[in-house]
Fold this protein.
Amino acid sequence: MSCVGNRLGTLIVDGCIQLKNLDCSQNPLTNLDLAGCENLQGLNCSGSQLKELDLAGYASLQTLDCHQGQITNLNMAGCSSLATVNCSQNPLIRLDVSDCTSLEWLSCDESQLTNLDLSGCTNLFGLSCRQSRLTTLDVTDCRKLIFVHCWSNRLTDLGAFLTNVVLRGGVHSDNELDVRGNPLSEFAITNQIPALTNLGVRVRWP
């Protein structure tokens, strides 16, 4: 179902149990009711004015694009099939992806996040969290992670990235870490970056 680029402020599709894909992007939505759309696999509500998006229990959902909005609260509890999420350009202060065990790609650029815990996302291979306020980024057990853009944050340490590369026993040909614009510690600059480079990671800094 597509209703892109209209002037919808409210969209109610509750009870549409056969609905699998919904693209309602580029609408000034302030209310989106998806109750009962339990088989939904793809949702694009980017460019909306939604402040909250509650997708708890949508276990069939695989792709979510809600970038360029006003969302401060994004609930993805129980979204165990979710593989791709783009929630960039939202004033998010918290992002919980602990139930998103199938997550492969996450984009959360230009947010208000100060902490991002991806420790349970064992299938994650791509992450973009640029131009946010991150002071901590936990990628423990993200051993498939090969592409990370986290420039213009407040990160000081790269130990988690280094540990992941060592634990997985090597790097992918596309392995890239972009940490430009972060206040990295002297230890990170003189020890961790050279260690990552020696292991074959393309590190972009400063």
Observations:
- DSSP finds two helices and 15 strands in the chain.
